Amino acid sequence: MSDILEALSTPCLAGSDSESSSDNDRDSVIGESHEDPSLTMVNQIGAEVEDSPLEETQTQDSAVIHAREYQLEMFEESLKRNIIVAMETGTGKTQVAVLRIQAELERSSSDKIIWFLAPTVALCEQHARVLRSQLPAVQVKLLCGADGVDTWTDVRTWNDYLRNVRIVISTHQVLLDAISHAFVGMDRLSLIVFDEAHNCVGNHPSSKIMARYHSRKADGLPIPSILGLTASPVMKSKLEALEIIEQRLDAVCKSPTIHREELLSIVKRPTMHYVFYSQPDDPDCTSTMETLARVYHSLDIFKDPYVIRLQADNSERSRIALVKALEKRNTYVFQQMKSLWRKSSDVQRELGSWAADYFISAAIDQFLRSVKKNDQWFREWQVEEKQYLANALIEARISQPPPFEDGATIIGVSDKVNALVQELLRSVDGTIGIVFVREIATVAVLAHMLSLYPSIRKRFRIGTMIGTSNQNGRKRDLSALNKPNGHHDLEDFQNGTLNLLIATSVLEEGIDVPACNMVVCFDMPANLKAFIQRRGRARMRDSKLILMMNAPNGLVDKWAALEAEMKKRYEDDLRQIQELVELEESEEGGTEVLYVPETGAQLDFDQAKSHLEHFCRRLSVRQYIDSQPYYIFKRMHSSSIDLPQVKATVILPMSLPPELRRIQGSSVWYSEKNASKDVAFQAYKAIYKAGLLNDNLLPLKDEFLSGVETRAGETEVHERWSPWKQVAHAWVHKTEFYRRRLKLIDHHGDVMGEFDASLPVLFPKVPAFEVFWDGSKTWTVETGEMKVVTAQNLHADQSPALIDLAYRHRKFEVRDTAQVLHFRSPTQDIPFQRLVGQKCIEEASKKDSAVIRDGNGYPFFFKAWLPTLDPDFPVKDMLRDQPTDVPWLMLERWSRRKNFLHRIDKRSFSSTPRKPTQIVYPAHLCRMDDTHVSNACFGALIPSIMHVVEIQLVAMELCNTLLKDVGYSDLSLVTTAINSPGTGEGTNYERIEFLGDTILKTFTTVTITATYPHYPEGYLDAIKTSIVSNSRLCRSAVETGLDKFILKKGFKGNKWRPLYVEDLIKADTHTDSTRPMSTKTLADVVEALIGAAYLDGGLSKALTCIRIFIPEVEWRSLDASRDILFNSTPMSTQLLAFLTPLEELIGYSFRNKNLLVEAATHSSFGFVNSTGSCMERLEFLGDAILDHIVVSVIWACERELDQREMHLFRTASVNADLLGFLGMEWTISQETTEISKDRSKSTIETQTIIPFWKFMRHVSPEMGKAQRNAEERHALEREPILDALRHGKEYPWVQLAHLHIPKFFSDFFESVLGAVWVDSGSMDTCSQIVEKIGILPLLRRLLADKVDVLHPKNQLGILAGKGLKTVEYRNEVRVKEDGSRELFCTILVADEVIVEIGGGVSPEEIQTKAAWEAYQILKAREDEKKNVEDEVMTA
Questions:
Q1: pLDDT confidence of residue 214
Q2: Within a 10 A sphere around the Cβ of 362, how many other Cβ atoms?
Q3: For the segment 1066-1079, what is each residue's pLDDT rounded down to a tens digit?
Q4: Which of 103, 569, 749, 1353 sees the fewest Cβ atoms within 10 Å?
Q5: 3-state DSSP call for residue 623?
């Protein structure tokens, strides 16, 4: 018990070199100062930090305090037994209660209630806000007099009200009444929290509640757990009072013992100052007071409405009441007048005559104006009472007191007020203060008086705070001057708008206020409790506690004696601590060494803590997660040793598996330093044995990331493999050959010609492809089924003859010898070089079926026979001398192309001057081929056809060698996959690479999560990065030989030459030539082949392909990995009660409920639950599952999207801002009840909407504040965002960014999705979840309406890039005149300032907003320039 008083009342020594304040400085205090032993400071432990760059911080002593060790120490003690947590004001007692309530919710059934008791309504409201913030998915109800609880007279009403409720906050009397009348049974409560537990004495309602508790305990009946919170366990000035409170609460009073030195080193005690003043014993009444007295005495009691009503009633009861009222002048109006007189006397004594006159005149003026306006100010008064008193007061004509200036004491300002003014004026700049007064009336008058002093008004912004009562029907006092917005003043004081608060004792207990550097006790504290609590408000550095008194007070001497006694006990303890320090210095550390023989790495006792901290920091970089280890020490007493010894436990982050999160030390020590080193060593050794460290005793994450090779932009790879050398050799050795018939089909669908193509190797199936003869003629080449022919049935190759027909005019050297690809007409004999221009032109001949050649042998198509030539018809200069009265021919030029695989760009064709396609020529100068024109056309197409066949042969070789195990059935997918975008082949890998990337990441994520069941998400992400990185895939392409199959360059027709078998056989086949290639292209082709495998045969083929390129990973199918993950999670069929609505919301019933619990658990929840798992691994899984589902929908879109479009739509569908927003829109309703305030007391059933995000479990006050802020922004901005998502033509990037929804909102959804997949093993089931939250409906809408989903920053970059201009973003925080900060973004394009935007909530949001504005400005400029140019062109 003594240690509690010492911890509360005695400052710790400065410069303490205990382990907890030095060796653990990164775990506890940042920027801590120990300069003055009498001045210590504490920031609120539950201080909430906004994740905005503009978060305001206290400028005075803005030390960041991390006191989780002592909070956790108290929390763990509360799980073992009933305790009273005794800690200084502002050190985070409420957070201990939140942790304890979280734990109780975990282990109690859904029908149990946790009841939180506080002494005032204001304090109840504060606790309700905290609990609703940190437990948003749980129904928390505040129950007070305003709810009419005193009129609930049956169990039904209470049961209806408490339906679905898990936590109730109320004052003590509310619970006492409910228990006393058996409306709420004690057995229904699982935990009672007593805030300000020192009140549990005497006849206080809390004491009576505990009396019923003790009665049930004695009878062996179920009782709830008890948790008390207090800053001053001593209610009265007696040390024995603590034992009484402990007995009443059936609890042990505890304050941090192991971490007490750290706690006390943080707490800054104020220096105490005494201010004396003179006060007259019985001041003379003022004229205004005398007037008030005359009004009172002049009141005719027989005209009092109450007396008149009693006379009219004339019952026995009313006659008795009438006699009493007349004898004692006891009516409500007379009581109010007496109260006004009494309070004015008190005000005069405390504040002076001017104050008394002001008080009276202000009260009367307020009353008369209310009566005149008939407003609601005195609505509880009867109309007759108000009019009766108003008539009397109007006659009195009470006037306002005169104004006064600084130093004007002659008008009756008390010496006490002057003394206070002088203290305020002497205060340092930046003072934040509270003035405690005893009487409510004094609060309003003193605040008004101080505001009249110009010198005070310049320095202080003054507000007031008094206690409130929410009881229905209570009449407002005539003397109540206080404005009804006292809580608004408190909020303004909390946020810094006000810096001086005049308050009653209501501000002593519990209510959160900022740390102050001046606390003035205008009236002496009532007891030691009040003294300690007021002193606790002054906890800034160099703060003062000012006690005002008119003479030395024996009570202060009594408190000083009590503190001296406690100090003596503390000094005795200090001597023991000093002895312990000496033992610590002499105590030797451990000698055990962790040694790895394979590498020689070793770690000793003294290195363990720093290594453990480094390891924990590397686990996660997520917001709102503190990954630092923390230490819990346990004192071990022995009868043989005077001083206690210490054994340590270290708690590690929740990202680790449960068996590694709580490690015990191996020995006991005298010093905490050695105990912490010992347990850190044991923890690091356990981490190494668990496989989370490498053999150099460093985190594996570093090793994984170091394995991600650096990747150059380009590298040398093998020259592309050519099939023709292999084909040439096969022609010599093979006896069987493979033939496919090719059909050349015109645009009408008519067959122009048929030819047999033969190879000595398997002839791949060539999909039909188009050839483009010119800008107007598009033909199709189709291939038939493959047939096997013998050498005897294989006829001579007509390829030389066909090529000669088509290209002789180009002086093409063609030899009459076999080529690698044989072509032959199945019906015609086409001899070599014997058909070109062999026939004369005759009118009757079929000129349109043959090629027409001019005198130079150039080929033409026949168009028309002209018996004579029109003299006006244009002819070549060389033909002008030819006669026109002889037959001429209308001819069409032969195509000059060799590459017919690419469509002619009609735009460039029309913009470039070209020769006319049709000419005339004298018939007698022309010749015609002795074969059909289709043969020459086909000969012209042979280079293009050979290239197409070559690509198919390359793809087939790839499939038959490296990718043999995949078993592709559709070769066209492979040809697409190996075609890089620059080939111009009409197809490339970009689309299926996008698909393959998703498939690879899905398999990688699932496989490594199953393979490493104990690895934290940070490790898994590093492993995934090392596997799917472009550098790794690039290396795979080279190592497997894939590089030689990649098509980098397209077909160059002008360089094509016939390939003869005899030439290729003679050529050197052992060349090691190389070619440069983009490393990204190499990686992309690997992913494209994975995508092709998936399209060809689903996930199984894709997995086979992945195994070929990344063989070092033990790949598993999705089902096999899922089975491992499902079986590795402890099975439970019972779901935590408050998560049951979540299961209903997502529409899926889990077989293993633990998966949903894990998915809903943020890693900060490890404070409460050190055995379960957090959401991070499931979120890692869910991210990949979501990508897989969304990409599948995008791929199935009716219109074929290019890779860029697919990427944009995926980003628009899965970005964190959108997921967070949809998680706020995705809701479930839960029944809530209220009790009507009319006479019926009927149950009003309503539906409370609970959004998805509220079901995430955490215990971080910072997260709670971030959630509240996001919720407020969402409520204000949701409608325009919804409208844009449902109907807009542009994606609302700017609006979503402005919501600034923290990423853990989207993480939560992804973790739930991952849990559903592990539990169900079904992508279809997961797709239904993605459908329910609204992602898939939105995606389909974006695709169908072709919504512009390009991000503003990309839009700006593209627009600026057209002019080769650079874009620069400059963010800065500016301080405004009122001291607040604002985030600005300036955008410069080519060094020109385009836009400057302020009011940002985050850097990304303000950049997005600024980019949109800049894009609009530049776009307008571009449009204006274009309009001007158009006007010039048309002028």
A1: 92
A2: 18
A3: 886 666 789 999 99
A4: 749
A5: coil
When pLDDT is cut at 50, 70 and 90, the band that residue 50 belongs to is very low
Does the pLDDT of residue 1230 top 50, yes or no? yes
DSSP 1171: S
Quick one: which of 485, 19, 569 has its CA closest to 265? 19
- CA torsion, points 1024, 1178, 1251, 1266, in degrees to nearest 10? -60
Please name the amino acid found at residue 1420: A
Which of 998, 999, 950 minimizes the C-alpha distance to 978?
950
Task: Measure Cα distances from 546 to 434, 522, 567 in Å.
Answer: 10, 8, 21
CA distance 1016 to 1163: 11
Is there a contact between 1317 and 1293 (Cβ–Cβ < 8 Å)?
no
Record the tokens describing residue 229, joined without a space: 């919170």
* pLDDT at position 37: 30
Distance CA 1235, CA 1216 (A): 41
Q: What do you get for the CA distance between the two ends of the chain, in Å?
A: 99
Residue 948 contacts by C-beta under 8 Å, 6 or more apart in sequence? 766, 769, 781, 901
Q: What is the pLDDT of residue 1052?
A: 86
What are residue 893's DSSP bridge partners? 860
How far is Cα 1375 from Cα 824, in angstroms, rounded to an integer? 85
Examine the pLDDT at 66 and tell me if it is beyond 50: no
Torsion of CA 492, 493, 498, 500, to 10 degrees: 150
Q: Is 616 exposed, middle or buried (0-12, 13-18, 19+ CB in 10 A)?
A: buried
Name the most confidently modeled range: 103-117, 139-153, 311-325, 1375-1389: 103-117
Mean pLDDT of 833-842: 86
- Say if residue 452 is exposed, middle or buried (CB neighbours under 10 Å; 0-12, 13-18, 19+): middle
Q: How far apart are CA 653 and CA 817, in angstroms?
A: 78
- The tokens 């819990």 sit on which residue? 632
Residue 588: the pLDDT is 74
Work out the number of other CB atoms within 10 angstroms of the CB of residue 555.
15
Average pLDDT over residues 510-521: 77
DSSP, residue by residue, 1002-1033: HHHHHHHHHH-TT--HHHHHHHHHHHHSHHHH
Extract the runs of DSSP E, i.e. beta strands, from 1222-1306. Answer: 1227-1235, 1243-1251
Question: What pLDDT does residue 257 have?
Answer: 65
| Burial class of residue 1054, CB neighbours in 10 A (0-12, 13-18, 19+) | exposed
Instruction: Give the whole-angstrom CA distance, residue 1207 versus residue 1202.
Output: 9
In this predicted structure, the answer to whether residue 25 has a pLDDT above a threshold of 50 is: no
User: On the CB side of 1027, how many CA atoms lie within 13 Å of its CA?
Assistant: 25
The Cα 1055–Cα 135 span in angstroms is: 74
Helix (H/G/I), strand (E/B), else coil: 242: helix
Q: What is the Cα gyration radius of the chain? A: 45
Residue with the larger pLDDT of the pair 333 and 1177: 1177
Q: How far apart are CA 145 and CA 147, in angstroms?
A: 5
CA distance 1260 to 1277: 26
User: Tokens 């190879």 sit at which residue?
Assistant: 759
The structure tokens listed for 77 are 């003690």
State the average pLDDT for the chain.
84
Report pLDDT digits (tens) over 287-336: 888 888 888 888 888 888 888 888 888 888 888 888 888 888 888 888 88
Rounded Cα distance between 467 and 507, Å, is 8
- H-state helical runs in 29-67: none
Cα–Cα distance measured from residue 426 to residue 435, given in angstroms and rounded to the nearest whole number: 15
Q: What pLDDT is attached to residue 17?
A: 34
Structural contact between residues 681 and 664, judged by C-beta atoms closer than 8 angstroms: no
Structure tokens at 209: 């509640």
Cα angle 29, 35, 37; round to 5: 95
pLDDT in tens, 735-785: 899 999 999 999 899 999 999 999 999 999 999 999 999 888 899 999 999
